[in-house]
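Sample pair:
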Amino acid sequence: MAEMTERQGTALQENVEILKVSSKSNPTSVGGAIATILRKGKKAELQAIGAGAVNQAVKAIAIARGYVAPLGMDLRAIFEFAEVEINGETKTAIRMSVLGEQGGEDMEILKVSSKSKPNAVAGALASVLKQHKKAELQAIGAGAVNQAVKAIAIARGYVAPLGMDLVCIPAFTEVNINGEERTAIRFIVKVIE
């Protein structure tokens, strides 16, 4: 399958490289591109439109985590909504800014499904973050991942008046559902002030 992610060169800021991710993007290839950008000390900015593209982008970030771990690095991502123009039409995309960092730990888990309401999840997430400064969302499937990413972007607005911002570290995890092992995406969400 041809790689659908296009590196757009450096963005307006020299230390940012933009990757456009589609539902057909190869997460392993995109993960490798993210890791390469982070190893250069730059920030990777992923742009995704639609649940399938958001799912592939989040998988790529989780894969990139594995690529940078042997270097003693971890990563964090900031999710936000962004207006982009495609063929003369303005669309709402999810922008995922990915930066290198150190660390990782356990925290409270909120489970998200494809039927979860992003505003409700965002409210619960903001509440946990105000108390504990960190939380984890778990999602299985593209629809659930899309709802989780929207909730994180919305929660940023909920905590902003308190002088807080959020960063996110996507990762893979195995969960047991009705005796069956499933791979989930876990979003480790932390407050930065």
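Helices lie at 27-39, 51-68, 118-132, 142-159.
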